[in-house]
Model the fold of this input.
Amino acid sequence: MADPVALAAMALEAALGWPGWLYRRVGHPVGLFARIINAAQHIGNRGGAAARRVAGVATVVLLLIVAGGGAWVLQYAALSLGPAGWVLVAVMAWPALAMRSLDDHVRAVWRALRMGDPAAARRAVGMIVGRDTEALDEDGVARAAIESLAESLCDGVLAPLFWLLVLGLPGAWAYKALNTADSLIGHPEPDLRDFGWAAARADDLANLIPARLSGVALCLMGGGWRIMLRDCRRHASPNAGWPEAAMAGALGVRLAGPISYDGILRDKAWIGDGPPARWADLGRALAIYRRACVMVFVVVGAIWLR
Done:
């Protein structure tokens, strides 16, 4: 049952994304996770290191109960309606994926760069990255967008899809809850290092296989095997380096490198060879990303028909 659910959910998201009118009316399910995380941080991120870690672990467990347990109840109720219940499950899985949504956001950055509007490009890229964007030049904007596109092939497409296929609706939404927690609190800064430790480690584990599949998908569609295998471990994340190094190799450019967060410059290692990424490379990255998404459709369809 997971295979047709995954195909239907992918088709819905590819066709519609997450429409603005729907977001304005009902928001997005990850908003619930964010509220839980923020409330837990306010309550539990205090005291000594051990107390913060325990509170962080409890937060992850609570998220898994809410997301995974809630999704299991909804899936069970939908499938109890009969064979057509899988359609409802697919609709509930739809917002866990972000193929079209990611493409829309990155294409807005590319369009602004192509039109020669760096201010609009910085605003657009600021919606999908966590780094400081106010002082980025055109090359910096392009590099940020390409890195986000590559990493989000895992976070927004392959990882939720992988867990949807493996564990059904509960797997997809448990993953989204963990990924949201990692985005909000899984940081190395002193004020979050202990409280966010469990979220960061759980997200690392959940992305272990999908990140490598993402790198393979990008290399199959664009090349870059040598750079992926050489540079995948240069990233601070044990997983994000795989798709980012694959994209750098496919494009023949350098990604990562020094990045500013909250006014503090972090001297990160470069990934890839060649010149810095430019706005034209962002268009090429989008083309590779789209081919990878089509390939994923084909693979899931083949699994269903096997």
